[in-house]
Amino acid sequence: MVKLAVDINGYLLKNPVMTASGTFGFGEEYEDFIDIGALGGIVVKGTTLHHREGNAYPRMAETASGMLNAVGLQNKGVDHFVSSIYPRIKHYDTGIFVNVSGSTIEEYIQTAEKLNGLEQIPGIELNISCPNVKEGGMSFGVHCPSAIAVTRAVRDVYKGHLMVKLSPNVTDVTEMARAVEGAGADSISLINTLLGMAIDAEKRRPLLSTVTGGLSGPCIKPVALRMVWQVYNAVKVPVIGMGGIMNATDAIEFMLAGSTAIQVGTANFIDPSISVQIVEGIKAYMLRHDITDVNSLIGGMLID
Amino acid sequence: MVKLAVDINGYLLKNPVMTASGTFGFGEEYEDFIDIGALGGIVVKGTTLHHREGNAYPRMAETASGMLNAVGLQNKGVDHFVSSIYPRIKHYDTGIFVNVSGSTIEEYIQTAEKLNGLEQIPGIELNISCPNVKEGGMSFGVHCPSAIAVTRAVRDVYKGHLMVKLSPNVTDVTEMARAVEGAGADSISLINTLLGMAIDAEKRRPLLSTVTGGLSGPCIKPVALRMVWQVYNAVKVPVIGMGGIMNATDAIEFMLAGSTAIQVGTANFIDPSISVQIVEGIKAYMLRHDITDVNSLIGGMLID
Amino acid sequence: MYMKKRVELFTVTRNRRINNEYIVLYAKANGELPDISPGEFVEIKVENGQNTFLRRPISIHEVHQETNEMLLLIQEVGEGSRLLAALMPGDKLDLIYPLGNSFTVPKSGRMLLVGGGVGVAPLLILGRRLREEGAEVNFLLGARDREILMDLTDYKQHGLVGVTTEDGSAGVKGYVTDHPLLKERLKDMDRVYTCGPDAMMRAVAAVAKEAGIPCEVSLENMMACGFGACLCCVVETREGNKNTCTEGPVFNIDDLKGW
Amino acid sequence: MYMKKRVELFTVTRNRRINNEYIVLYAKANGELPDISPGEFVEIKVENGQNTFLRRPISIHEVHQETNEMLLLIQEVGEGSRLLAALMPGDKLDLIYPLGNSFTVPKSGRMLLVGGGVGVAPLLILGRRLREEGAEVNFLLGARDREILMDLTDYKQHGLVGVTTEDGSAGVKGYVTDHPLLKERLKDMDRVYTCGPDAMMRAVAAVAKEAGIPCEVSLENMMACGFGACLCCVVETREGNKNTCTEGPVFNIDDLKGW
Ligand SMILES: Cc1cc2nc3c(=O)[nH]c(=O)nc-3n(C[C@H](O)[C@H](O)[C@H](O)COP(=O)(O)OP(=O)(O)OC[C@H]3O[C@@H](n4cnc5c(N)ncnc54)[C@H](O)[C@@H]3O)c2cc1C
Ligand SMILES: Cc1cc2nc3c(=O)[nH]c(=O)nc-3n(C[C@H](O)[C@H](O)[C@H](O)COP(=O)(O)OP(=O)(O)OC[C@H]3O[C@@H](n4cnc5c(N)ncnc54)[C@H](O)[C@@H]3O)c2cc1C
Ligand SMILES: Cc1cc2nc3c(=O)[nH]c(=O)nc-3n(C[C@H](O)[C@H](O)[C@H](O)COP(=O)(O)O)c2cc1C
Ligand SMILES: Cc1cc2nc3c(=O)[nH]c(=O)nc-3n(C[C@H](O)[C@H](O)[C@H](O)COP(=O)(O)O)c2cc1C
Ligand code: FES
Ligand code: FES
């Protein structure tokens, strides 16, 4: 038997495969396809203090080996999550993380507070990197002082695991990583989407209502891998890597680069059962390579 | 007849299609395939003050809709360019721009000075964005003070057209653009490659000798288009856009986003005649859309 | 009844070319095909496409329950649909299905089914089901010209078929709204269903609304997942944004904002 | 004589399967095939690959000048080669060619041509040309096992053929360096040519060097362009970095650093 469990700074995932926020709904959308309990963890849709309608349609454009989205954190607000959604999903036999966003630090604080003490929610993922909202979102995550401020403020009120999700749209991601580590993050997840844009040459119009949007999928994998490796070498807290993971090989690359766990995002749209297949694929790789503990892959890239 | 000529701040290109540095050699490599004179301009290989052997092999990895490279500015130095290469290529009936790199400001200055007064070289492209060298290169291009310093220093000594090439590996590309504009850039080209990385999961080793390298190709197009649009809206000097341009439609998208001219890079490897085909494709688009002057495409994206 | 969504590898049994732009793929399930309701769609993985990263949503055109075959009407508009149109018997088709809600199928009444372009696809299975339930079916199918007009044989089995073409090369010249079925006989109808280009659906919806006749539209919003996970396909309704892929693609126009 | 490089659409005329992993594609030029020298290669555009952004470099295995056909020996190792191996007569093949330098072809002497795995590809045309010029040809071909051993018929037309397999299922058991041709009769040879896995070529080069016999190797460095524009394929030589694609793929081992 191979050992698949990984410890993200005190919280144990049964295996390193999680799903990425905004690509996995609240898990329910995938119940027809997989046993959610087979996953190491899931991160549910970005949640804010108040109900948000998100951005206008169109919100999506296909790009080379990827896609742009401009959903803009559409959600019914944290109270709705706690009262209506949580009771429906709390039976999942996996760690449920809530992705938390806000326009002001006060909103982040209040949202996090409302998630305190939900027994089946071991932690939150602080989204300081959403490129698709006018205020807050990414603006917190691209400058150190604001990243520190929001992380520290939430750390002060939130009792569970605090994962902070970084933006790739920065000059030096290690600076941001060290900043949020210093401010109390228990783990760091990355990358969120790259800010991109697409144009319809025939109509001479942007393809997204918001003109720019977030790029995800295999096209961003090289950038994501690089940032995971950089951050892994810069901080002590566990790194949760993502960005274009489509299969078990990709997942293993992220672990070799320094990820303790990984998140599967856009790939879920193309194959809704891929996350569970990745768990199986990691097992197969370990057997083939005579690896008994998945932890030995973390940061295991060999450099001469 | 359609009008294809564009003016990049005083220098006239016969059409908006240039080729990108490092992907077009010195033009000679393409003589078998195309008439170089059919292009608006070419930017030759990155040139430094002294001879450089570049990075160790392997220098290349294929990625989803793109590639990573870690060539590391291999070149024989500016003196060799002036004495041996320039005489061989100066007959090209197109604008030849030399891509200039350095490890210190002094090196940039000396290299640029040696290119002064070469009659068939209307300008240089200042590469302050190369991610593949340990010193200099990108480090100049990701912080405003150094970008300003190197641009101003070269501006003081170089008499021709000064194009400055920006790195996409920054938090705010408009800040960099305004900085180099203020420091005397005649035009701004972007984007250079995104810093990325690739791993061989089976061998558990990086695919590049340098671990990280520069990502190019269609995978980066959404990021490039976004940055071109941002910079177009931030500065007055002309913008020369590039990043994943594979065909005329892509080229037109870059013009609509604000490019006065565009550069074709990685696509040359896949089809060595693509640059000239793009000139033809732009003509065809203009005829189909009843456009008589290509200049009307520049920044022509319609937003409600 | 809720049908569990699934990912399944179908086998192409036939590729029937309708005209220059349209083909019908016959895709056979491995086992028994579940019940399919008119209006539901599939998400197809396009193998070997260099620019087809996401799946492609395609309506279920008709179902042959006896042979466990699903028919998909595909218009070649880009790389994805061209690759699908090139599939041959024996090729595999990776589908997620059944997706979306479905059209209302009353047991009686006079129904007008208005389709434009490839939007005629879901109207065939809808027409059949309406007829089987006991309603009277009237099709009104619009096309650019006779060259890309659908094969009408199948439709004619289920009801009357009116046709318009923009150039008058078949049926009434003009848009569907120029056809007597919509201009004169609309008031005799109990319900209008429409699927096709946005402009056409809005025009049909406008006349139906004016005549006070219930109207259901099937929207073709851009979709990334097709099963409610990405929130990319939203449409504004009176109750806020709804997912076209799960709460649609069929909407009653009274529920849509701006229709 | 310098042959102008060109991009040309060839037509596949035959796909000959050699074994489980190898096929030979016969590709016919539109017009007259230019002179091809042994060691030259082509860059193939892999259509419809989802992970094949760059062209694939493939050696020219043999040329049939009469029919203007080029033969390419392809080993299925990944998506690109698998898609190429699935091409059928009538399919198009987009090639850039002829690329690279070529092997030395003296008019006399005793030659040893050592190939491992798919590295045997360029040795066929080389063997023929050497024989035509008047040299004596000895092939030594290594394979993992008999299942993936080359069809030797063509090679036997041009000279003697020695074989090794790692499991001894055909020829001498072991690596090429275990074969008498390299262990005992090397001293009779005037020149060694080798192409195959890096480790094999280095082993062959080492024994040749020790014996003081000139040795040419054909390198398979990772290439992005294939025609000298990207500087990705460099190899360290005594005169600094050289492009494997233009100044190679054939190098005399004396010129290579660390060989
Ligand atoms: C619920 C639903 C049902 C559909 N049913 C059918 C059907 O039965 N038969 C059929 O042929 N098509 C149908 N479509 C449209 C079909 O999904 C698109 O035509 C297809 O995805 C285009 O893919 P492509 O790669 O060929 O074109 P692309 O190269 O991706 O695009 C080519 C052109 O098609 C248009 N297009 C792309 N995606 C869509 C879309 N989602 N809706 C409308 N236009 C689009 C683009 O504007 C573009 O100009 C349906 C769409 C939806 C959302
Ligand atoms: C000058 C030259 C001549 C060649 N001649 C032949 C030939 O005649 N027949 C033939 O079958 N192959 C030949 N190769 C190797 C061939 O180019 C690769 O096997 C092919 O590109 C793999 O593509 P893929 O998409 O199938 O595999 P990928 O999925 O890209 O890779 C699969 C595996 O193949 C290996 N590989 C990828 N590229 C190369 C490469 N350039 N060289 C060696 N290994 C590689 C990788 O390490 C990887 O593990 C030659 C290579 C060069 C440089
Ligand atoms: C449609 C969509 C919606 C997303 N919504 C969120 C979100 O609400 N919060 C968040 O932190 N990240 C969100 N993301 C980013 C993903 O969680 C992930 O960081 C990114 O997509 C990169 O991973 P991938 O390439 O595997 O998709 C979203 C991504 C997509 C594609
Ligand atoms: C192999 C290779 C070498 C490059 N060398 C240089 C260089 O010397 N100087 C430079 O400014 N940019 C260099 N670039 C970057 C390109 O000029 C261009 O900015 C980048 O590749 C994005 O465009 P593309 O996606 O069209 O290739 C190089 C790119 C590649 C792929
Ligand atoms: S397409 Fe993803 S939610 Fe509708
Ligand atoms: S492969 Fe580009 S220079 Fe050799």
Description:
The complex is a heterotetramer, with two copies of chain A (304 residues) and two copies of chain C (259 residues). Chain A has 304 residues and is of the alpha/beta class. Chain A has a single domain, classed as Aldolase class I (TIM Barrel, Alpha-Beta Barrel), CATH 3.20.20.70. Chain A contains eight helices and 16 strands. Chain A has helices spanning 78-89, 105-115, 144-157, 173-182, 221-232, 248-256, 267-270, 274-288; strands at residues 6-8, 11-13, 17-19, 41-47, 60-63, 66-69, 95-100, 123-127, 161-165, 187-190, 194-197, 199-200, 205-206, 212-216, 239-242, 259-264. Chain C folds into two domains: 6-99, Translation factors (Elongation Factor Tu (Ef-tu), domain 3), CATH 2.40.30.10; 110-220, Nucleotide-binding domain of ferredoxin-NADP reductase (FNR) module (Rossmann fold, 3-Layer(aba) Sandwich), CATH 3.40.50.80. The two termini of chain C are 29 Å apart. Chain C has helices at residues 79-85, 121-133, 153-156, 180-183, 198-211, and strands at residues 6-17, 22-28, 41-44, 56-59, 62-64, 69-75, 92-99, 110-116, 136-143, 160-165, 172-173, 191-195, 215-218, 234-237, 240-243, 250-252. The relative contact order of chain C is 0.14. The radius of gyration of chain C is 17 Å and the shape is globular. Chain C has 259 residues and is an alpha/beta fold. The mean pLDDT of chain C is 94. Chain C has a seven-stranded antiparallel β-sheet. Chain C is built from five helices and 16 strands. Classes of the chains: A alpha/beta (304), C alpha/beta (259). At the A-B interface, strand 11, strand 13, helix 5 and helix 6 of A face strand 11, strand 13, helix 5 and helix 6 of B.
